[in-house]
Known about the structure:
homodimer, 527 residues, alpha/beta, seven-stranded mixed β-sheet
Amino acid sequence: xxxxxxxxxxxxxxxxxxxxxxxxxxxxxxxxxxxxxxxxxxxxxxxxxxxxxxxxxxxxxxxxxxxxxxxxxxxxxxxxxxxxxxxxxxxxxxxxxxxxxxxxxxxxxxxxxxxxxxxxxxxxxxxxxxxxxxxxxxxxxxxxxxxxxxxxxxxxxxxxxxxxxxxxxxxxxxxxxxxxxxxxxxxxxxxxxxxxxxxxxxxxxxxxxxxxxxxxxxxxxxxxxxxxxxxxxxxxxxxxxxxxxxxxxxxxxxxxxxxxxxxxxxxxxxxxxxxxxxxxxxxxxxxxxxxxxxxxxxxxxxxxxxxxxxxxxxxxxxxxxxxxxxxxxxxxxxxxxxxxxxxxxxxxxxxxxxxxxxxxxxxxxxxxxxxxxxxxxxxxxxxxxxxxxxxxxxxxxxxxxxxxxxxxxxxxxxxxxxxxxxxxxxxxxxxxxxxxxxxxxxxxxxxxxxxxxxxxxxxxxxxxxxxxxxxxxxxxxxxxxxxxxxxxxxxxxxxxxxxxxxxxxxxxxxxxxxxxxxxxxxxxxxx
Amino acid sequence: xxxxxxxxxxxxxxxxxxxxxxxxxxxxxxxxxxxxxxxxxxxxxxxxxxxxxxxxxxxxxxxxxxxxxxxxxxxxxxxxxxxxxxxxxxxxxxxxxxxxxxxxxxxxxxxxxxxxxxxxxxxxxxxxxxxxxxxxxxxxxxxxxxxxxxxxxxxxxxxxxxxxxxxxxxxxxxxxxxxxxxxxxxxxxxxxxxxxxxxxxxxxxxxxxxxxxxxxxxxxxxxxxxxxxxxxxxxxxxxxxxxxxxxxxxxxxxxxxxxxxxxxxxxxxxxxxxxxxxxxxxxxxxxxxxxxxxxxxxxxxxxxxxxxxxxxxxxxxxxxxxxxxxxxxxxxxxxxxxxxxxxxxxxxxxxxxxxxxxxxxxxxxxxxxxxxxxxxxxxxxxxxxxxxxxxxxxxxxxxxxxxxxxxxxxxxxxxxxxxxxxxxxxxxxxxxxxxxxxxxxxxxxxxxxxxxxxxxxxxxxxxxxxxxxxxxxxxxxxxxxxxxxxxxxxxxxxxxxxxxxxxxxxxxxxxxxxxxxxxxxxxxxxx
Lengths: 527, 527
């Protein structure tokens, strides 16, 4: 196969690009198992050093740019991504096994994220500007003039995610929010889509140049997850980390970050089984429709979403039997789907096999048999509440189209099961108006256990918006005080600084009298 | 000595009070070394268990109270503290060695903090309410109704601080902000002021009862820092930690918190030497006045502030010589002051002795000789930039009235020294208008290194306000994204939750249409 235009198999370090070290690795088309040109070498220690040094050197100048310059930079990245054209779509399809519609949609989402953050940057609320004017005549002591704003934390390392080759990778949500905050970004490309990463990386690199920004604002490195990731997260010039991936990978980064002389925040989005509670009236009145919608959510994108519904809770009885019957009737028709990588496919198949063998777990239905080398076959299991509560292995995420129904004696048991779970990204209630009393009783538990709560929807499909929360208590994310999707994500990369009795000339522009940035004066929201 | 009214030497666990286990310990009057009645026993494992269980049980009900109920609770605590009357002032003076004026001022500050947070709670901005209304006709996919608010993280453990027996102890800033956020609080009393802690603890306990809140909203435990602190921070029901104290203590808590199955945030305020840069024109034009003001800040409260100016930077020359001469002339007249505890006095004396013996460090001046068993004698040292840059021991905080001047060849060297430092709570510029170019060149470094920057003031004296930041990069605090003083401190104990397509009846009141809470709609700030 010919190398597509624009792909050189190079690391991007600031404005430069160069080959990495041996051994080189290639992307793999999971639909066929074939290797994809070109090969990518790994970042050497001196490459890592240079990327970190450039990021550090760029930091003060980059964060000192006007809001308009930074917004324009984000928009330029979006434009440059679109300008790559179909080559990007084709390469991302090849490397991920995802269909054209999904990749085109994801490209749109990636661009929209960048544009959303451009808007957010311009609006300026994220600076959290606050002014408490001096009170020179206050007794017993005068008050100084106090002004506060958020500043960016410093260079951020972003790990590309396997399951969103565009929207959570090189120029995805983590990168967009970090750049919006004023942080230079070093991306560690995910080995599953090196070519897609290079194409997007060159789009970002070009935007840095066009916008006249210091070259260290962006670098893209390739290399083994463990060694490259550890080296980047350990570097003293790196001040925060964005990661989407496995629990093992995320917690390893947390340990590395905490062991530094200066610990730094890790925003790792790791593991969630996204419980869906089907409440009794809803189950009785529309169990069939819920079963069909559930299958749709379960099998979407081969189940390769952090928000895949991996756990269903329902109260025993004929309505639940009918629901199960409906899933058993419809799931076998679902075609297998190529998964993102051979490794993910292997982990999925292994996870499903392991679940099927656990005593007390019944295999209710499987999807169609695999039609390709890395095709995932959907799986739906059921078990009793007693078995579930007794076996912690049943709470582990199986990444892919696998879900486990827990047959509960009653709604109180659903509550007990929720209480027994670790933190989740989402929890969903399927409910009718007659289920309101149940829902109200459950709500405090839901709020403690998850970052996003849904009624009568399914958790797959994460809107990029201002009120979105894609984050939840550990281990769904490393830091449940944050979100990695939506405009609130910018706050992950900010810290407050107070300026006391500063002369106007020395104050940052946002904090001067008459600044156009939204400001609280004496705690009151102003113009 | 008779036991003061209201002091029983008891642990407060929810609504109950009871004696702790042997060995019991007593407070010590540092001015005399005498023990103070009564004795306090330590929390047993079952006491810790009960306090945590009660806090967990109280959490949903407490966070479900209206903003008005919670604000009233904070105000009631403030009223109850004042109602203790002079017995509180007298006891705090005895236990801390601090003078009446300081303790009365601190009581006022403690009450003002509680009242400030009552206002903050009522105003409601901290909920960060956001609504992105449904767009049912959007193509290609409709958008759900998304609503977001902050919820409290869960029960918080607060460690009383030795140096603020009221304002950063049982009902101090950490407790006030956690209660404001909706978190039950378990306080570990500082052994330096057990009686003060009990008096204030009973004021909080009474407020819980008066306000009809669940008893688990507040408990007060006594016991050895290591074992009790570790047990509390390890408890799975505890979700965040507030601490002010030593770097060793704070980092130990961070390790404990990170080693939990569910890691939790630790907000530890630990160590800072608060550099003061005297820029050349200011040094020439008003070196004498700066020297006098510096001595005032250095010796305030026996130097026992996190913001004590422990490092001075000035450019070599006759102006710096004159400045040093002025300090050498005035410091010897400064009376010694009783320090908070025998342990703190010992650590201070040891730190000063160690500094004096380091080659290249000159003892410029000392204050008056100690007038009591635990009286601290002020100390002012000088060294060269070369010595300072070569010896990391010179960067360690010496808690008390000790400061080190670094004679720099020029302003660029001041910058190099700042770059070599770890994170700080504050950095101060003493500058004249003619120093503006220097100040502008230094500002980016200041912003990276500290949470509060001052011009022509001194860092002691931390205003409780909306724009205050008392927090900085590690190790000045564990988490430089936060402040422990001022209204922004409430954000430490919050996390966002998104409600997707919720029926109005199930939504929290703050997120319903027409709610009076400040709300962003589609990212725009509304009414």
